[in-house]
Amino acid sequence: MARKRIALIGGGQIGGVLAQLIAQKELADVVLFDIVEDFPQGKTLDIAEASRVDGFDVELRGTNEYKDIAGSDLVIVTAGLPRKPGMSRDDLLMTNAKIMKQVAEGVKEFAPNAFVIIISNPLDAMVTLFQKVSGFDSNKVMGQAGVLDSSRFSTFIAWELGVSVKDVNAMVLGGHGDTMVPLIRYANVNGMPVMEMLERKYNDAAKAKEVMDAMVQRTKMAGGEVVKLLKTGSAFYSPASSAIAMAEAILKDEKRVLPTCAQLNGEFNVDGYYVGVPTVLGENGIEKIIEISLNEEEQAAFDNSVNAVKSLVEDMGRLGF
Ligand code: TXD
Fold first, then answer.
1. Which of 9, 17, 35, 228 to mutate to test the pocket of ligand 1 (most atoms within 8 A of CB)?
2. Ligand 1 centre distance from Cα of residue 125 (Å)
3. pLDDT at residue 83 in the model
């Protein structure tokens, strides 16, 4: 069987970790594209020179030319600027929209059959723009945010309860911004509701709620917490790992149930917008959007998040994209 090929557009912090993870997992051959001359060539050479030690047989190639992404099965886009301390994701809109338009044109021309996972911020708007410019089917164009936001939420829950994070299932829906919606009611440890476990731990419902609210708040602000500590950029290990989970689900047809920034066409009462929702990812990309019932409070939070995405997309339209 021919090896798969993944093109990475953007060879910065996340792009570099993506290339290394793909190689270490022997998931596919890698083409790393960046506009900075020699930089992607240097990164891929560095990673390739670990192949004997790590024991992987994949080809890694750095390039500054779009034609080299030809034949890619999957494209992961991180091109764009990251946040600096004090910036919101939305502050990146103008700069990254210009970049995303170029990227979509390049991918459309040279890898027209690829699945595409966008990582660049502001996420929901960037996925929308990519899909619009490329004209690719919406099952093939998606964004990574929910896998990371859910992993952050799950990590905080595991720390709080002193249990293995492997047994924690918690999901975050909505847009990838401060309005994201961590689903408290569905969060569980091997099927046992997290809220119930917190109530038993503290023997006090009010305290349990307070602890959960703090974890929800930390999840919403988790990207900013890392930005503030790093000072020179934003999170890159965890976003890369999250996109790899999605890439593996697609390339290995795993049918994984992952929260994905997907185009909604009537699901959750949203029409024509990209928002984070539970999906099934497999060989056809987004194979299914899973609609779950939300109570009044959850629905209100979800609607609020969808409205934030809508206004961002409208801002982008006003900027001419
Ligand atoms: O979960 C998520 N979705 C995210 C998203 C979590 C964290 C960070 N997230 C966003 O990913 C972040 O806000 C940025 O918009 C992207 C990429 O973050 P990264 O940390 O990798 O940024 P870098 O290190 O600055 O890398 C960006 C690269 C850099 O090498 C530039 O030279 C390149 O993008 N770049 C381009 N590549 C191709 N084409 C064009 N036009 C271009 N312009 C810049």
1. 35
2. 15
3. 85
